[in-house]
Amino acid sequence: MIVEGKHYRTIWIDSENEQTVKIIDQRKLPFVFEIESISTHEQMAVAIQEMHLRGAGLIGAAGAYGMYLAALESLHNKDTKLDLQNAAEILKATRPTAVNLSWAVDNMLHFLSSLNDEEDFIKNARYYADSIANQDANACKMIGEHGLFLIRKISKARKKKTVNILTHCNAGWLAFVDFGSALAPIYAAFDQGIDVHVWVDETRPRNQGARLTAWELGQHGVKHTLIAD
User: Fold this and answer.
1) What is the pLDDT of residues 133-155, one digit of tens each?
2) pLDDT at residue 229 above 70?
């Protein structure tokens, strides 16, 4: 999505250094927009556990990219499969209840363990991690397209008066790779010129509605009002 007029995903491989994964450090928002560089699977594990990043879809993608970094690290060791298994356990232990995380890590582990061509090992690892991230972004985009139909229908029934929508917690693009889930239809409607306003609900203990949802709606230009808890 858009931050200060520029498009970002929440996680990506550095275009100038494929051994580094970039993330938006959510701990600093909404006061500072800061990009963090991650170069090992252990650093990714810390980022997940200490909530430098958060949100189901994003955590899954982070797990996939964590395994990609583990693949890079394993090239310097003798037992690649054992290294990957150990990395998978470290990553999954950071948020053991996060289904997206365990799903992505297990898929990456299965895929990497099946590779025999050492020459294309890293290329394929990157491809598969990117595909998991792209799958998340594409699913969110489809949520936006389907939800747009409902908001357009409400707008028409209200004779194009403002459509008010209540959100809870953060289900925007910061919680996923891009677009978001519940916020995806809102962004799609706004981009189509529909008059929308969002009541932004907080979520304790981290106030993600206040700190994240309100911030990203503002970056996109969507009218919103924060509801204090």
Assistant:
1) 999 999 999 999 999 999 999 99
2) no
Burial of 39 (0-12, 13-18, 19+ CB in 10 A): middle
Which tens digits make up the pLDDT trace of 39-77? 999 999 999 999 999 999 999 999 999 999 999 998 877
Is the CB of residue 181 less than 8 Å from the CB of residue 143?
A: yes
Q: CA-CA distance, 227 to 145, in Å (whole number)?
A: 27
pTM beyond 0.85: the answer is yes
Give me the residues paired with residue 200 across strands: 167, 226
Beta bridge partners of 167: 200
Spatial contact of 227 and 203, defined as CB atoms under 8 Å apart: no
Give residues with Cβ within 8 angstroms of 161, minimum separation 6.
155, 195
CA dist list (Å): 140 to 25, 146, 147, 216: 21, 10, 10, 16
What is the full DSSP assignment across the chain? -EETTEE--SEEE-TT-TT-EEEE-GGGTTT---EEEE-SHHHHHHHHHTTSS-SHHHHHHHHHHHHHHHHHHHTTSS-HHHHHHHHHHHHHHHSTT-HHHHHHHHHHHHHHHT---GGGHHHHHHHHHHHHHHHHHHHHHHHHHHHHHHHHHHHHHTTTPPEEEEE-S--SGGGSSSS-STTHHHHHHHHTT--EEEEEE--TTTTHIIIIIHHHHHHHT-EEEEE--
